[in-house]
Amino acid sequence: MEFRTRAIHVGQEKCPQTGAVVPPLHVASTFVQPGAGEWGEYDYSRSGNPTRKSFETTLSSLEGGQGGLGFASGMAAIHCVISMLQAGDHVLAGSDIYGGTYRLLHQITQRAGIEVGLVDTTDLAQLEAAFTPATKLVWIESPGNPRLMITDIAAAADLAHRQGALLGVDSTFATPVLTRPLECGADIVMHAATKYIGGHSDLMGGALVVAEQRLYDELYFIQNATGAIMGPWEAFLASRGLKTLELRVREQSATAAHLASWLQQHPQVQRVLYPGLPDHPGHRLATRQMDGAYGAMLSFELAGDYDQAKRFAEATQLFQLAVSLGAVESLIEQPASMSHASYAAADRARYGITDGLIRLSVGLEAYEDLRADLAQAFTESFQDS
Ligand SMILES: Cc1ncc(COP(=O)(O)O)c(C=O)c1O
After folding, report:
1. Which of 29, 93, 252, 352 is the least crowded, having the fewest Cβ atoms under 10 Å away?
2. What's CA 164's distance to the chain center, in Å?
3. Which pLDDT score is estimated for 383?
4. What's the distance, CA 348 to chain centroid?
């Protein structure tokens, strides 16, 4: 079946008891056992829940994986992966990653005696040189966050495997509509389901999908032992989100591409970072690695300083000033003070997260309205400068 059909039908079979076309929401925390010491498919909702299972099954099919796991948030999903490591291990992360992941790695993971290195994974020579004999995990985002840098997933997987490490890809920005990292050789794909999968700014969730049963078993063990599972209501909403994921992502990406071209011509914009633009350093790779569109996230550098960017981000009306992304509502933010405030200032400077950088999550509103909103924000925020 095609992607869109699987998004609606795999794992979402009708209820055998009632014929309901939408599988029922199972809120039970515990399940009656056939006998003492005998186990049915479900026994306790931390260990497994039918509504969560439906979501995990659909997402795993869309990513082409061997199995999926639903979590309470994107960070809980990443933490589960990190929990496979032990003291003395080394994790190599891309330099263009979500600020919360940076914080987890630098302020929690390191406490356990795990070494953390950041590297520009778009440069394969730099990536190769950054491995140590202790490297067990490479963690990337493509497109990256907030600069939308594109990493060659197949090449990174190859390098990681040659060094005996796993490759994990946070594919929140791309979604399985545009990139399927497991097909490129990655071992683990992760999503903040809070974003495009939910798609309506009304749920928190995370997910992992893996290429191999052995990895699934290990991650499942950690998830069950630590407990940050996705709740049934969130799983129900996430499954509903998956059904329209392709439509939303393609439509929002088309609007983002138009806005990127418009912004590129704007005199107050120094540089637009959008992989669909031919001058983006990852454009050719993105054309090969992404499936027919370049996503609905875009960033741009304003001609102006921190305060100018702050004024601009506060001047839009349709684009709401908020962290998060991936929903039908368009959002605007200043990474230096918001999504990437957890980066050390030196790392922000080093990796190009400038004070004048603005990040947009382009929603499902009409292009003309979004463009008009940005135009009025330019007029209003630059008038005194
Ligand atoms: C790319 C990316 N990964 C992970 C996360 C974390 O997800 P959550 O907020 O659901 O924990 C975010 C949140 O903004 C994100 O943007």
Report:
1. 29
2. 25
3. 86
4. 20
244: closest CA among 364, 77, 70? 364
Residue 40 CB-density burial (10 A; 0-12 exposed, 13-18 middle, 19+ buried): exposed
Residues 6+ apart with CB under 8 A from 261: 277
> Tens of pLDDT along 322-346?
999 999 999 999 999 999 999 999 9
Ligand 1 within 6 A of CB of 73: yes
Distance CA 236, CA 345 (A): 40
pLDDT single digits (tens) 280-302: 999 999 999 999 999 999 999 99
In contact, 295 and 173? CB cutoff 8 Å: yes
Q: Is the CB of 172 under 6 A from ligand 1?
A: yes
Residue 253, amino acid:
S
**Options 170, 187, 311, 343, the catalytic residue:** 170
Q: Give catalytic status of residue 136 as yes or no.
A: no
Whether 307 contacts 295, CB under 8 Å: no
Q: Is the CB of 241 under 6 A from ligand 1?
A: no
> Among this protein's residues, is 14 annotated catalytic?
no
Which positions of the chain have pLDDT values less than 50? none
Model pTM above 0.85: yes
Asked if the bond preceding 24 is cis, omega within 30° of 0, the reply is no
Choose one of 195, 237, 299 to mutate for the ligand 1 pocket test, by most ligand atoms within 8 angstroms of C-beta: 195
pLDDT in tens, 234-251: 999 999 999 999 999 999
Paired strand residues for 167: 138
Catalytic status, residue 46:
yes
- C-alpha torsion angle, residues 189, 193, 198, 203 (rounded to 10): 170
